[in-house]
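Regression test attached.
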Amino acid sequence: MAHDHDDHDNELDPMAARVRALETILVGKGLIDPQAIDVIVETYETKVGPRNGAKVVAEAWSDPKFAEWLKRDATAAITSLGFTGRQGEHMQAVFNSAGTHNLVVCTLCSCYPWTVLGLPPVWYKSPPYRSRAVIDPRGVLAEFGVTLPAETKIRVWDSTAELRYLVVPERPAGTEGLGKDQLADLVTRDSMIGTGMPLEPQR
Amino acid sequence: MSGPHDVGGQMRFGPVVPEPGEPPFHADWEKRALGLVICSGAMGAWTIDESRRARESLAPEIYYASSYYEIWIRGLEILLKRHGFVSGRDIEAGKPVDAAPTPKRVLKAADARAAMARGGPCNRPVSAAPRFRAGQRVRARDFHPEHHTRLPRYARGKAGVIEAVRDGYVLPDTNAHGGGENPEWVYTVAFDGRELWGGEADPALTVSIDAWESYLEPA
């Protein structure tokens, strides 16, 4: 066997073969509808992703009443924008401020708010991030190019139960007069995990 | 269980490697793996807690050498075998050999999108009043059970403050082992970084966990 684990499209990739065999068995026994897998994949490739969360944040930036609702009952507020379901059943929104920066992690597995951010990135699920976010968050942030003032409080949320966290970053300066769609374009996925900041508006 | 998954505070895993423009999947098999995990779970034979337990029970040398989708697939094989849907002979042959029990349901393509949008809430009514209130000092219990638990090692025995009383939730410690849902109140508990990591820790750091009531005692 070629020692080439990077070539995941290779037919000889052991995981590709293993997963294909498992699907063959389950479909053959009538336990799985392979087209249901297609629908699930398409859902998370094209419909459920971080643009959902960006809309939530843009709404909160634009509408203080919505922001208040999001703070009080994030699940209901997010549902009102049409984002519901798996791994978003119990939502909490945490708001950055001038003095506090929020960072979300799941040290025990890969818990992540799918309904607003989609599937988690590989780094989020991997031991380097999971191990260090709770003990050395500034070091982790530096690897994302984010440096905070030493006096900024860092609040790390370890998703150890079924609550799923969405960080609401601070609205960037110079965005007065921008509409919700333009604001949403500034909201990056990482800024809603806490490992990044929103984009600056184009001049 | 203090398994390989419980990595909070461990060192030497190397730098975080962000991937700009990361796609949702890095290989076609990852797409099928996601779908297999969700569709198999939809059969209703096990809970999310049991599936987490299956992944955590992988040997450390396998867990740390595996990508997350590989961990999922290895965990799924454990569950499918445990519940009789797949046998060792099936796997060996790469095709169905042995008969399987009839599942409670099979997720069909026509229902898949609605099932994703519905999700599976795991909050439950708890008849007793919450034992703790917001602002109260508590200590996370110092236990090291063989069974599944969601109290991370780094918080065990540490003192913190109840920041919020959340809701009643299914208790993973029993539910992962077929012991029933036994819902308990869940609290967000905030710990000073120096309580967790010692006096040299960043004084501006606070870390919170979400803890079931039986993980906590008054401090």
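Expected vs. actual: identical. The helical segments of chain B are 28-41, 48-56, 60-63, 68-82, 88-93, 109-118, 172-175, 193-197.
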